[in-house]
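Page 47, continued from p. 46.
Same chain as before, 324 aa.
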Amino acid sequence: METTTPAPAVLPLIEAGQRVTVRVPATSANLGPGYDSLGLALALHDTLTVESLETDELEFELSGEGADSLPRDASHLVVRAMEAAFSRLGYRHGGLRITATNVNPHGRGLGSSASAVVAAVSAANALVPAAMQRGREWILQLTSEMEGHPDNVAPAIYGGLALSWQDSDQYRSTCATVAAPVIPIVAVPDFELSTEAARALLPASVGHHAAAMNSGRAALLIHALTQKPEFLLAGTEDYLHQSYRAEAMRPSAALIRALRGAGHAAVVSGAGPTVLVLANGEGEAADILAQIEAFTAANTPDIGWRVLKLAVDVEGAKVELHRR
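Result:
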């Protein structure tokens, strides 16, 4: 007697006529010694709006960063992340109208891909029926799987200073409040460096002494960021990754050396090449801005630098849903 394999069940469609907008901060990971574990949300926001359509078409409008180079079809990271989220939630989508407004520079170490997947997964989660929606911990798990580590996605989701870790195949994160005097400043060069290329420069192992020194600085950094900003310079000293990556971003490494030599807590933002400086108050922030301007004009005249004094984003991803 022949048996037939039943056809796979067709996932239900999300409801047409919905519109969700997600606003997601940029992030800076590592912060010096917090390799793959610490991340800070920055008040520099991308916005993603998704509308569910009656048709089966995909409409994609993209403006701002990446508008000249990123695809506007199903190969875009936002679409792929949304489809993965819908599938995990047990749904599928019909037509979508996606509008992305990008402010976060791409390939600069400010978590642009993490912002994209957090926005996409948050949007997909909001578009399924309310009874099926999941919490931020679920979004953290899925986006960490997509990114391979939680250090950027966690602050993009939760805001503030995110401390993240992994238990077996589970990603977890908790957040701390950054002390009011701490002011993030970023110096963004006009060249890119992929995370994959930056990671390829790292050694397979480091010595016990370097690991011990790094763990001490990471602990001090959390204390400095949350309570005692006067320890930011010492707390941002890294022994695991920055020196190995310096060759791939010489202008950034030179700027970091100059700023740290002047007593400022400068580090590589994420995988680079953006430089992040953590100022203790407005007075130091003004001094840092002046020093960056002077150093880059004298030493890197052929490189364009975008220098931004930002704030710590304390809200993380914000979702606003409108149903028909």
